[in-house]
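# step 3/5: fold
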Amino acid sequence: MARARRVFGRLDDHFERRSSGVDMSKRPLIGVTACRQIIEPHYFHVVGEKYIDAIVDGAEGVPLQLPALAERTAVAELLGRLDGLLVTGSPSNIEPGHYGGEPSKPGTSHDPARDRTTLKLIPAAVAAGLPVFAICRGFQEMNVAYGGSLHQELRDHPDRDDHHADERLPIEEQYGPLHSVRFAAGGMLEELTGRSEATVNSVHYQGIDRLGEGLGIEAVARDGLVEAFRVEDAPAFALAVQWHPEWRVLENPVSLAIFRAFGAACRARAGE
């Protein structure tokens, strides 16, 4: 018991230090999807630290990791306890059978447990009025969950630009601004940011082919690729972006505006 008090005391100190002046008792509990990866010799459920930091600093919430439990995920119980859901990016790709695609090229990384978790969790969360924000793989998962499909290799399509930064560059440069996106006139992103366009990072090989049902385009790249969408009839915040606004969220006004809006929606849910 004493050890537990010490651990939770350190967590409280961590959140207090990183707080932006928000009453800690009112911070929303935000679920963060995890990936199931093998770290020899065992499987682990992992979440990138940048997503955790973006929830704490950008959305001003309390992150809670959600393991990729597939069919064992207690969806109803989670939706009754969470105030928001962040669907993260990942090095892995969705298995193409989920959207009627051809088998992946040899060596493609997959995470079937995550697929079977998020593809059910996302539409259930949206329907329940839980604020949902999806990023990169999460953006693609949300599209597939609503019946959309993906280009498995954008570089195989001559009408598409290369949307992946040079992996030989330092990580700070890989996640630096790469290309512009144009926000939909009168759309959610234009309203949240006060801008008609933004320059974003880009580290994805795949992209949307067919947009899912009931999804409204929020941003497109110069080659016409969909870079952001919303769920049109969602009762709460339901936005997905292909780029990585979680990267150094406090240093980018557009990224911060999105995470602040997501956090506000989660706090509103918590207050219901």
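# step 4/5: annotate
The longest helix spans residues 253-270.
# step 5/5: archive (pending)
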